[in-house]
User: What shape does this take?
Amino acid sequence: MVCFRSRRLVAGFFICSAVLGACGGKKDEGKPAVDNGGAGGAAEAVASNQDLDVIPPESEVVLGVDLAQAQQSALFRELVLPALTKSGDIQKLVDTLKSKCNIDPMTAAKRLTAGVKGVGSRNPDAVVVLHGIEKAKALPCLDQVKDELAAERIEIAKDGDAVMMKSDRGDLAFTFTGDTTAVVVLGAKANKEGVLAAVQGKSTLKSSKEFADMYSRVQTSHTVWYLLKGDIEMIAKALDMINVKSKAIFGSVNVTDGLELRGHMRVETEEQATSAVDLLKSQAGMVGKMAEKLEIDRDKTDVRTLVKLTKPQLQNVLGLLRGFGFR
Assistant: This one.
């Protein structure tokens, strides 16, 4: 059920990037987040990412994806893209956008930032920030593919600068804030009022000192960076099994010719962090043998992990996971 719901959310993001765009605030077309790589300058690090101005502070997951960087990776093209287009419906959408709108959704979008609330629910709420889709192409495209959308029972309505899309798979609303930048809202607030409110950029997320501190420790120049609240049900239940309560899990994933994963888990006490490190080390034997590099340590109440896999090593890991029934 969790996998199914996650796929629905991914599909929603995909449709946004395919037909529309997402946000970065009115002031600028979106300045890339800096490579923080450490705890210093937390306020400066978080202030540099203007996309965060519209991400709701109640988001359970905040993430960024450098789509342009991912597209340059042979690993992404060989392993991720086939999975994204495995669905016949998605492949049909890609072909339609290419033929009718001259938009290739697999290459047009350049970067996104998103905040998600209701992780694991049937229709989570999200504000997505996507850069790269051209407004001059995207808006006419909606008219050009309206028959195809209608066949998929997707209803489109325009009200001023806002566009709303409704379907039995969930609702979304969007409005462009620049030539290649727009705000997209999914879920309960996917209406004109909700998207225009998001555009105002009044989020208080950046004012959270703990968020700023965690963000400053993340390699935001990597392909994907993420921060997850520790009280998300599926995470909390898993950690309860080892008597650990996490405030947050955050880190980054870099996709090049291989895969690099940098993870942090912030727990309540240094004693919990030490116990978690000891447990991870005791269970890391197989991963250590299959990885180019594996490091596990702690910094006060942060459990830190670093895993590096070459392409052949990653393929071995994926084969092992498939053997256990993961897809």
